[in-house]
Specification:
The structure holds 2 protein chains of 2 kinds. Chain A is of the alpha/beta class. In chain A, 38% of the residues lie in helices and 29% in strands. Chain A is built from 9 helices and 12 strands. In chain A, the strands form 3 sheets. Chain A has a 6-stranded mixed beta sheet with strand order 6-9-10-3-11-12, sandwiched between helices. Chain A has a 4-stranded antiparallel beta sheet with strand order 2-1-4-5. Classes of the chains: A alpha/beta, B alpha/beta. The interface between A and B is medium-sized, with 36 and 26 residues.
């Protein structure tokens, strides 16, 4: 069974049609990359999958693990195992990263009928993951994302993803604003999450990230539709020829 | 996508949990106010003549005053003749121990979670419980007495320590201060009194629990706390009231006096009945609270969490008279449904090198209106005075309002006053971020609000900080849509 099955999905934002019939299947263990020029609908697709308000689905369906997720609230989708690494992670003043993440971990465990983690178990869990992302202990006591640099915010997203252990990871422009060192650390974190049961969807404008997170499939999004799919070589071809090349082809 | 509005509305209509009424026989004066009422109250309480005269002076002055309407709140005129100015649970004799207290009354406190019973008292809270107007039982008094600390009802203090009352009553809030304080001075029925002698650090949190039970009664209590030189005390006040359709007036006065090197910390968690969701009923909380840092190096700190009352109108203030004295005001005020709050503080810098800090967090939801009004006044001789004010408002929904009126008057060129203010809407982005991590809408709102209020909560004694967080959660349930 496919992990994610997007069938002819259309969506509208503020009265404008952005997605115009997306078809996409992600099987367990696969890494997919969605590329496309600005305004093609990449981030909209990520937001619609995560269930953001003000994104109106006008047609099609999305099955996640065999369940229709379009009827679920964003928190239910998250508890089902869908994780979105934000392009612009928000700041929540006064709420420490560890408090926030513990609430998230336990909300998901509760949903799955598992006992909540106490402070000690939680600490053990995050310590291990922090090492992987080369994060300092002080992160945990700081208000979430407040005063974090761009790179720290993105690393924090991947860190949370690692802790929450989702079935499907969606990375929305995770490479934007990262220097090369941060990019390596982030990619290392993502690659460590690759396994035969998990799916990963990388949304990116540039090919650069795909040097580190090597995708199984690459799709090109343009004007709300996937106009071309291929393997990792498609990304390289795009890098060399630009999106204009496909426009002529399409 | 399903909208969250319906779930939210269900939560929003959650009922006020403390709205029960206790069935007790009580001695209540008939409604109405004239000199005879004032004399009757004073006589009922067997007061010395200086106090009767003081009350009458206040009453005569009150008759020349008009009800003020400058705050940013709206309310129907109050008929002061329709209010009963004295109500006390009926009792035959003075109570010697808790065993003699009416079991109905104890049950009420139990429901409120007030630790009146001995075993709970060992948790370390000394409670002076004010039920309507008479202090019912003061616990832990003996242990405090060993240290020379006087903690009792105001009436008892009048009988046993008239010299302290005479010296300090009205020394911070004079009888002529303002319409409601003057009314209180004329008709106050009871309250709490605390005196901490020189050099004594009060070893436990002192606490008063106010409750308005009787219908059509106003509660006019009076609290006076004095910390002598080098003494320190932390005091907590909590408030609830039964649910009634009509509005009830609560016009209290709190006076704090800190002598040299003394510290007073006064924390309030106010959860008076706010009225129903359409604004019917609820408490009018018109309170005058003021502290005086009389001696050098003294410190007075107000912390308040205001979630209840139909209308809250109060400005816990500090007069910084002693050199190097410190005044602090930490406030969370929440208005939901039709609640209105006009609150803030006044910091009056008189002495040299006096410092004040103001941190105000206003949260408005539903149709709530929340106003911060603050005055920082630095007088001519207050060389080196400093003030820092931070005033943040958070809006939940688009039908509520937040208003800020900061007044700053500086008469000394070496003084420094800083003011920072912000207004934010509880972010859709923040909520989505939390939800995307699996956190429910309700938990997300609580988390964001508690984060917003953190700077104030950390000033509360630990167990009350936890209470305050929960209270905020309950008061806000379902306000986000």
């Amino acid at each position: 069974m496919a992990l994610l099955e997007v069938d002819n999905l259309s969506a509208r934002v503020q009265g404008r049609d952005i997605l115009k019939g997306i078809n996409l299947t992600i099987n367990p263990g696969e890494v997919h990359a969605i590329m496309g020029p600005n305004g093609s609908g990449k981030s909209t697709l990520a937001s619609v999958l995560a269930g953001r308000d003000n994104y109106e689905v006008t047609g099609g369906s999305v099955q996640f693990n065999g369940k229709d997720i379009l009827e679920m609230s964003p928190d239910e989708r998250a508890c089902e195992g869908l994780f979105l690494a934000f392009q612009y992670p928000v700041e929540i003043p006064g709420v420490s990263t560890s408090y926030f993440l513990k609430a998230a971990v336990n909300a998901i465990r509760k949903y799955r009928g598992e006992p909540e983690l106490d402070a000690m178990d939680f600490l053990k869990l995050i310590k291990e993951k922090m090492k992987l992302l080369e994060m300092d202990q002080s992160f945990m006591n700081r208000s979430i994302n407040e005063g974090f640099s761009g790179g720290e915010k993105k690393r924090n997203e991947i860190f949370q993803m690692t802790v929450l252990d989702p079935k499907l990871c969606i990375l929305d422009e995770t490479d934007s604003g990262l220097d090369i060192d941060a990019l390596k650390i982030v990619s290392q974190g993502v690659n460590a999450l690759r396994n035969p049961t998990r799916g990963i969807l990388v949304v990116t404008h540039y090919q650069r990230l795909l040097n580190y997170i090597v995708p199984d499939f690459v799709h090109v999004l343009r004007d709300g539709r996937i106009i071309k799919s291929g393997d990792k070589s498609l990304a390289l071809e795009l890098e060399a020829k630009g999106y204009g090349w496909l426009e002529n082809a399409a | 996508m399903p909208t969250e509005t319906s779930a939210i509305e269900t939560m929003a209509n959650k009922e006020y949990k403390w709205g029960f009424v206790t069935d007790l026989e009580s001695d209540t004066l008939p409604p109405g106010l004239n000199e005879d009422t004032v004399r009757a109250i004073s006589a009922l309480k067997n007061e010395p003549s200086f106090l009767t005269e003081w009350r009458l002076k206040a009453f005569r002055h009150w008759q020349t005053m008009t009800e003020p309407h400058w705050p940013n709140v709206k309310f129907a005129p109050i008929d002061y003749q329709a209010v009963s100015y004295y109500s006390a649970p009926k009792k035959k004799k003075t109570l010697a121990s808790l065993d003699e207290v009416d079991p109905e009354l104890l049950k009420t406190y139990e429901k409120l979670g007030v630790p009146l019973h001995e075993q709970k008292i060992f948790a370390g809270v000394a409670v002076d419980a004010v039920f309507d107007s008479v202090s019912v039982a003061t616990t832990f008094k003996e242990k405090l007495a060993e240290m020379g600390i006087i903690f009792c009802s105001f009436s008892e203090a009048v009988q046993k320590h008239p010299e302290l009352i005479k010296k300090y009553l009205g020394s911070v809030v004079p009888y002529s201060d303002n319409f409601f304080a003057t009314l209180n001075s004329a008709v106050f029925s009871d309250g709490s009194f605390c005196y901490v002698p020189k050099g004594v650090q009060c070893p436990m949190e002192l606490s008063t629990y106010f409750r308005i039970n009787e219908r059509n009664t106003g509660q006019f209590e009076r609290t006076l706390i004095i910390a002598d030189e080098g003494a320190s005390v932390s005091y907590l006040e909590g408030c609830t009231a039964p649910m009634r359709d009509e509005n009830q007036l609560h016009a209290a006065v709190v006076e704090l006096v800190a002598l040299g090197d003394a510290r007073i910390k006064y924390s309030t968690v106010q959860n008076w009945y706010p009225g129903d969701k359409d604004g019917k009923g609820g408490i009018y909380n018109f309170v005058t609270k003021r502290g005086k840092c009389l001696g050098d190096n003294s410190r007075i700190s107000w912390t308040q969490v205001e979630t209840g009352s139909a209308i809250t109108w109060k400005y816990p203030s500090v007069i910084l008279q002693g050199d190097n004295s410190v005044g602090e005001f930490y406030s969370v005020a929440l208005t939901n449904h039709r609640q209105q709050a006009d609150t803030g503080t006044k910091m009056i810098h008189i002495g040299r090198n006096t410092r004040s800090t103001i941190v105000s967090k206003g949260i408005s939801a539903g149709f709530g209106q929340n106003t911060y009004r603050g005055l920082v006044k630095i007088l001519k001789h207050a060389t080196g005075a400093r003030n820092y004010t931070q005033c943040d408002s958070m809006l939940i929904g688009d039908k509520c309002g937040a208003h800020t009126f900061p007044y700053i008057e500086v008469r000394n060129t070496s003084a420094r006053a800083e003011h920072e203010a912000s207004t934010s809407k509880i972010g859709e982005d923040q909520l989505f971020y939390c939800k995307q991590r699996g956190i429910s809408l309700e938990d997300a709102v609580n988390m964001i609000i508690n984060g917003f209020c953190k700077e104030v909560f950390k000033e509360l004694p630990m167990e009350f900080a936890v209470e305050a967080q929960k209270l905020l959660g309950v008061s806000l349930e379902g306000s986000v849509g």
